[in-house]
Amino acid sequence: MRHVEREEHFHADHVMGLPGVLRGRAVGAIAATAFEEPAEQAAFVRAEAAARRIPLTRAVAGEERRTGSLTWRVLWPPDDAPTPDGPNDASVTMLVRSAGLTLLLLGDLEPPGQRELARSPDASALGAVDVLKVAHHGSAYQDPGLIRAMAPRLALISVGADNPYGHPAPGTVAALRAGGATVLRTDEDGAIAVAGTAKELLVARD
Questions:
Q1: Omega before 168 cis (within 30°)?
Q2: What is the Cα 103 distance to its own chain's centre?
Q3: Angstrom distances, CA of residue 14 to CA of 90, 158, 183, 201
Q4: What is the Cα 85 distance to its own chain's centre?
Q5: Mean pLDDT value across the chain
Q6: Backbone angles phi and psi of 61, in degrees to 5
Q7: Distance between CA 49 and CA 31 in Å, rounded?
Q8: What stretch of H or E contains 132?
Q9: pLDDT by residue (tens digit) across 13-32?
Q10: How far does CA 149 lie from the centroid of its chain?
Q11: CA 31 → CA 8, 13, 64, distances in Å?
């Protein structure tokens, strides 16, 4: 099976594990944001792709792909988006559908990008999602309107234990729970796997 590897943006915590992701897998392409900052990490991704002769492509809103029963659509960034203030608001954001489940993966998108995403035609037509991968490790920088609009049943926060940034922010966790979401976080729950259908979510924790 060939894979498409996604680089949401080029911050080190998102790209430095790329060699391990590629190891032992047949990867047909690496799709990344067009905003190549920080330059050193973007160059690292280009070098890793070139060394393995893997095409490096640009992910833009509207792109759709399928592998088996799993489909995904890129919601952000749009092709004509203005240059963002930093890499986070250039994060590739995707809507994934599998077995009747909808999963929204926000990368590190911050409130300006989240607000623009919420106003986009794709997001406006989406409605509630089953699973939300919370932006930027659950930091305090979230748009409350997007959280309310997405109304996830399950919110996943990828975050390191005892990190120096205070992630996830208590206010973010509280807002998600107030909207009815079950919140799971990797610093407390370990590795998390989600399966099931639109009627029943199944979660396995390490």
A1: yes
A2: 9
A3: 13, 11, 22, 27
A4: 19
A5: 87
A6: -55, 140
A7: 10
A8: strand 131-133
A9: 667 778 888 888 888 888 88
A10: 17
A11: 8, 17, 12
